[in-house]
Specification:
Elements (H helix, E strand, L loop, with lengths): L6 E2 L12 E2 L2 E2 L3 E4 L5 H12 L3 E6 L13 E5 L5 H11 L4 E4 L14 H29 L2 E6 L12 H22 L3 E8 L7 H4 L1 H4 L5 H15 L7 H13 L6 E4 L1 H7 L3
Parallel strand pairs: 1-6, 4-5, 4-7, 5-6, 7-8, 8-9, 9-10
Antiparallel strand pairs: 2-3
Helix pairs in contact: 1-8, 2-3, 3-4
Length: 274
Amino acid sequence: MFYGLYSIDSPVSHVYRSPTYHHGVPAMKTVLITGSSSGYGLETARHFHDLGWNVIATMRRPSPGILPASDRIKLVALDVTRADSIAHAVEQAGPIDVLVNNAGIGVIGAFEATSMQTVREVFEANTFGAMAMVQAVIPQMRERRAGTIVNVTSSVTLASMPLAAAYTASKTAVEGFTGSLAHELGAFGIRVKLVEPGYCPTTRFAENGAERMNGLIPDTYADYARPIFDAFARPQATTQPQDVAEAIWRAAHDVSDQLHFPAGADAVALAGPR
């Protein structure tokens, strides 16, 4: 239940009922966002909350101080690579109107130097984690014949970039998965969308992957990599977390057949006209 300022990991199935109307008034909607501890996920949680939604903000280690004190915010521990953690989080959330698959990890480096263990770790978080979350919420959405799934990928799917082969593969897989899924779930009234953020210097992409990326630029690649990293340090256009939050909001409310929602000036430029 919601007592005081926050509720962490308490069953709320009786709190988060989401009928279309209650006494003639549109019911408050509920969004579950993965990877809400920082960056895009944190900003998206704030954005949906500010616009009146119930927010299930999930992260590996919940930290109550990162979001506003509100009886419409619930922090839930979630590791998208563990089936038991997913089941527990979905149970804690109750009825979910929108799932935002934002959790993920990054890796930059020469593919030759990237171990297959690291590649598998990236796919477990970025690809299989998103798939598992989708599979966990489909039954309730299908039963209601309503709901939206927003999968957050990356602008690396819009234009190929060097030194990001494993990461790009993990995100491109989600793009193909989402496109196909949109067809089959559309038959049950469930919308499926993609949000493709550009490069955001303020996220923890490099920080979160520092240990994983250690040693992935061998000396033989140093001369090749140097100008690429120099260009990363001086981008002509970038993405801000608010850009992504707004794109996720648009995607969650879009009732057209639009699948792709690039987010940020650089991603919009890469996507071009569709």
